[in-house]
Amino acid sequence: MIKWIQMYLYFVIKISGKILDKENIVTSVEGATIIIEITKEDKIIQKSELKTSNIGIYNLKLSLNRDIYKIKYSVSHPQFIDQSLTKDINLSSNSEIKTDFTLERVVQKQKIKINLKDGNGKPIKGSAVTATGFSPKPHENVVVKGEDSGVATIEVQCFKGVDETFQMEVAVQDLKETTKQSVSCTGVSGERSVTLQSQYISLSGQIIDPFGKGSELDLSLTTQPASQQQSIKSIQGNWNSELLVSLNKNYNFIITYNGWDKQLVKEEQMALIASGQTNINFHIIYYQDLVESTINGKVQSKKYHISLKFHKIFLLKEGIEVTNTEIDQFDEYQIKYKFVAAYNQKYYFSLQVKETQKFKQEIVPYTIVPPIYNLSIDVAVTETDAYINEIKTHFSKFYLKGFLGSEYNCKDKIHRAVQHASVSIVKKGQDGDKVKGATHTGDDGRFSMYFFLSKKQKYMQIQISRKQYYCLALH
Question: Can you tell which superkingdom this protein's organism belongs to (predicted)?
Answer without folding.
Answer: Eukaryota
